[in-house]
């Protein structure tokens, strides 16, 4: 142990974004070499497991759990009571232990009582206090571990980059008519690639995290925008011979994943886009308006309600 450390009491102050030891600040993520230099040379490698190597400073009442996984985080254990437990250092910590500048006993005084442990999560650290089983509820150990925040892995190759076509594109008047055409060309005939999948799309999306579980009961704006911007080559128009609207269509499930089909959100309002599709002869539609079917029949289209 450094002679400087042996002549002065240790003061440990746990902060939101790091740990201060005798006025030396250690930011997150903690570094073993830096901590070892501060704690001194009088330590032992006490134990090794599949996941950690445990280094113990018996004189100080401190031990460090050093992860073997490069993505793991260091955990600090501080013995705060005179108890004989093999999993703790020989001596208890005799210095000052503060959490956010407050004595650790005061910090935990208003937390859960009559429990074997008390856990408090800060922004980046979890502080756990092991409590004695007797009525005194003495804190016997303080454990300090960094919270490893799960971060969604973004796939670098994005199949959903905005598409541009070399030929002439179809200009739609009614967006819901366009969606019905996409259902036919993308999901039924597979002539438009990639086949859009909202869950895969969310994994690739960079601008924000799309939570399909929470947002999937309403139109997901980014999915709507994707289909609005999707260009369809006029050369594909001749492949559309029928349109079939159904509440379980893939196109709708990839815009509103948990849509129940009970509203009129995807109803076609204007049928001017028929002019782009000379081979369109059959349509099954959400609409309940008899006039729609009369007008479509006059245009040579066998149209029926769902």
Description:
The protein has 306 residues and is of the alpha+beta class. The chain is built from nine helices and 15 strands. The protein has helices at residues 3-6, 32-39, 104-108, 175-188, 198-204, 212-215, 221-229, 250-253, 290-298; strands at 11-15, 18-21, 24-27, 44-48, 52-57, 62-67, 75-79, 96-99, 102-103, 117-121, 125-131, 139-146, 242-244, 282-285, 302-305. It is elongated.
State the gist of this model:
The chain is an alpha+beta fold and 306 residues long. Helices cover 21% and strands 24% of the residues.
Keywords:
seven-stranded antiparallel beta sheet, 306 residues, alpha+beta, disordered N terminus, 21% helix
Count of helical regions: 9
Q: Please give the number of β-strands.
A: 15
What fraction of the residues are assigned to beta strands by DSSP? 15-25%
- Rg computed from alpha carbons, rounded to a whole number of angstroms: 32 Å
Order of helices and strands: HEEEHEEEEEEHEEEHHHHEHEHE
Strand order of the largest sheet: 4-5-6-7-12-11-10
Largest pleated sheet: 7 strands, antiparallel
In percent, how helical is the residue content? 10-25%
């Amino acid at each position: 142990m450094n002679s400087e450390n042996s002549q002065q009491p240790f003061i440990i102050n746990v902060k939101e974004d790091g740990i201060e030891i005798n006025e030396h600040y250690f930011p997150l993520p903690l570094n073993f070499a830096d901590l070892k230099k501060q704690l001194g040379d009088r330590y032992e490698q006490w134990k090794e497991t599949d996941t950690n190597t445990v280094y113990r400073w018996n004189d100080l009442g401190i031990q460090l759990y050093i992860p073997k996984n490069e993505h793991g985080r260091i955990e600090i254990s501080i013995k705060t009571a005179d108890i004989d437990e093999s999993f703790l250092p020989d001596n208890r910590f005799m210095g000052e232990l503060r959490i956010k500048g407050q004595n650790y006993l005061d910090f935990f005084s208003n937390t859960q009582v009559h429990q074997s442990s008390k856990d408090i999560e800060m922004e980046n650290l979890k502080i756990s206090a092991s409590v004695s089983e007797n009525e005194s509820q003495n804190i016997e150990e303080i454990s300090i571990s960094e919270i490893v925040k799960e971060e969604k892995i973004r796939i670098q190759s994005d199949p959903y980059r905005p598409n541009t076509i070399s030929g002439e594109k179809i200009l739609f008047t009614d967006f819901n008519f366009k969606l019905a055409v996409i259902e036919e060309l993308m999901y039924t005939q597979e002539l438009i690639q990639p086949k859009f999948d909202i869950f895969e799309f969310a994994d690739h999306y960079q601008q924000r995290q799309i939570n399909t579980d929470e947002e999937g009961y309403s139109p997901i704006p980014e999915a709507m925008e994707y289909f609005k911007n999707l260009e369809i080559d006029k050369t594909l128009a001749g492949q559309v011979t029928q349109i079939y609207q159904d509440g379980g269509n893939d196109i709708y499930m990839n815009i509103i994943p948990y849509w129940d089909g009970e509203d009129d959100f995807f109803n076609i309002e204007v049928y001017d886009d028929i002019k782009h599709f000379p081979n369109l002869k059959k349509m099954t539609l959400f609409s309940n308006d008899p006039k729609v079917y009369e007008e479509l029949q006059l245009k040579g289209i066998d149209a029926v309600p769902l």
